[in-house]
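Two proteins follow. First one:
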Amino acid sequence: MAAPTSDQFPHVCEALVREEMNVFPSVSTEPILNATDIFTDGHSHATPGGGIVASYAAISLHRLASKYHVWGLQQGLTQYMTQHLSSDSPTGHMVSWYNYALQIGDTTLRDSCLQYLSWNLSSVLQSGEWGSISKDLLLSLLQRSDLILQSELELYEALEAWINQNQPVSTTVETALRAVRYGMIPPHHLFRLQRHSPLMVKYYETIRDLLYLAFQFHSASPIQLAKYFDVNCSIFTPRNYLSLSWGSPWIINNPTRDDRSFSFQTQLGPSGHDSSKKVTWNALFSPRWLPLIARSTYTELGAMQPTRTEGGRPRIIVTPATSSPNFAGVSFQKTVIVMAKQQGKVIVRHVYNFHQSTEEAGDFLVDADLQRRASEYLIDSSLYLHIVIKPLYHSLLVARK
């Protein structure tokens, strides 16, 4: 079939959109996609009704562009969809876009959707889309350590709600339950779940060994536990939790003005054995830092006075206020989460992991224009960050006698 002409294209689009509604009946009909935004060759095509295409039409137009080999439109739609993942719609479109990307093998769109879901999981859990995700997508998310959410308990409760709504087969339930990191849930919540969670009561035997290991983790010091168990497994690996016991938000007004610093406290670790032990952290942000090779080395752990230069780049350093013997057998990974506002929503824009300085990440805010008040990295002229401290445990090497 010959490709449609410019005059025919809007009518073909409209017909295909109507047809595709039967394929994707659950996606949104909210008009959010302007055709002039998705054509890269300067031609704007729109439905005869008013030049606006609904969010479900993004999939329909993408199919049409693929069918007629309109590569510019296809690429433009992929770019549009990756930039509008946070758009509001009555029933949501994220899951539909992910499933479509998976179906056609569009790795760029698929990875963008998966990253958005992972980095903004707390808001997704509260939305209507959570119940509509497939079991494969659910299991894929549960395996990830880069999920950003309030707590592991929040994830368990959301999983229970998804299972109650979708009623999957037992093997899916068992696999999902075994992907929960019970060691990251405080023991008093685990006791409550054992008694009052119908899901845990029903499948208790499936996860008995994991719960037993979690309670052992909470009752002994991590260094003692490491003598007998492999502490490098996922049950002892935290995700990016936003609750204050794991880190702190940090709002930096006019970030290019000068250096900023602040202190905050976290738990020593998620183990119940360490629940009463706190660590104070010092954080320093500078909008202009010399590269590591150009700076003098730190003379001591708490010395954070590197030279500034107009040609430098933004940097953050996070160090403990004091050293402690409690740090034995554990290292602390720092994660800086950068927030931004898109389509009126505050979402996660970037995530950076490091041990002491964001220099280790190499690309911290490398594309950010922090001097421009309307910068997409700023919210009301401020840089919105959240610092997460994640203890990572190490197995001990026992010398042979």
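Second one, unrelated to the first:
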Amino acid sequence: MSQTQNIDLQLFLHLCVLEPFWYICLSVLKSERTKKAKDRDMCVLQSSSSCPGAFLYIFNCFLWLLLQKEAFGCPSACQLCTGRQVSCRNAGLSRIPWNLPKTTILVYLSGNNISHVTPNDLRGFLKLAALHMDNSSILYVHPKAFVELPKLCYLHLNTFLPRGLFSDLLSVRYLTLQRNRLSVLGSGTFWGMISLQTLNLANNKISRISDAAFHHLENLTYLFLEGNNLPLVPSNAIGRLKNLERLSLSHNPIGSIQSFAFKGLNKLKYLSLKNVKLKCVAVNGFFGLNNLSQLVLSYNNLEMINSGTFTLLTNLMYLQLDRNRIGSIGNGTFEKMGRSLKVLNLAFNNITELQPEVLKPLVSLTHLQVYANPWNCLMHFILPLNFGVSFFKA
């Protein structure tokens, strides 16, 4: 073997140590050397032209790696690629990279320019559990784009929703579709998502929800609808969600709570109606919320509350009524929740006085916030002093 060829061989062997894929080549070379040990030893004494074996194997491996290296990694634009987690956030991608590792569990493609998603783009990702494609300028997703993702449990997507898009996502438990400019949720939108537990539809433009939009979502426990254009509580749609525990309708122009608006939500524990321009609550407005423990009614236009407002909330523990226009609180308003209510926030209203009878039923109250109200100067004589709580902000 000539001196030049010997130097080249040493260089290639050095690359074998640095590149893990070269070990494949070395294994082949070692096997060949075992079979032809005698011939290879003789090559040392012969001319290089009659002993091309070792050099040829390594040279072929080198060329193969040059051509196939991209197939084992991620595009250079991606910030992270470990084989289990891939992060290509804000990378300027126009499509889903073809060479992502098929063993990937978490994929972040947020903030790109991916306009279309086809069935081939996500084919073969049998272990994929979480896919983030929010803020990626997606215009269209093929209805069968997610067919071959059997273990997907978290999906964050921004796009138009073609009918049947989620029908194959039987394992998805968390679906985030916020900031999608959705205006209408038609019937069967989430058909097939039998495992779904959390649905985030916040900050869209939803003004109408079909009565059957949430059909088959028996396991849904969290529903976020804040920041939309709903003119009223979508009673018929949400009434199907028998296992719902947390509901947010904040920042919608609802205006009023109609009778039986939450009928069927017997397991609901948290309800937020913050900043919904609420002026009144009809009789039996909170009917059926037997297990509700926290109610948020902050930043609304309520002017008065009375014994009919919260009649059925017998297990309520936290009630936030701050930043309304409440000037009148009738006797018996808090009577039914007297043994359960611990925190009552009435700050930033128009209250000038509170009669002792109003607060007397609240035997379990630990925190009462009534600061920033135009109190009558004799208020400290009228308020009961046996609650052991602070009536004014420190």
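SUMMARY FIELD: The radius of gyration is 33 Å. Helices lie at 3-18, 22-35, 37-43, 53-68, 235-238, 356-359, 379-382.
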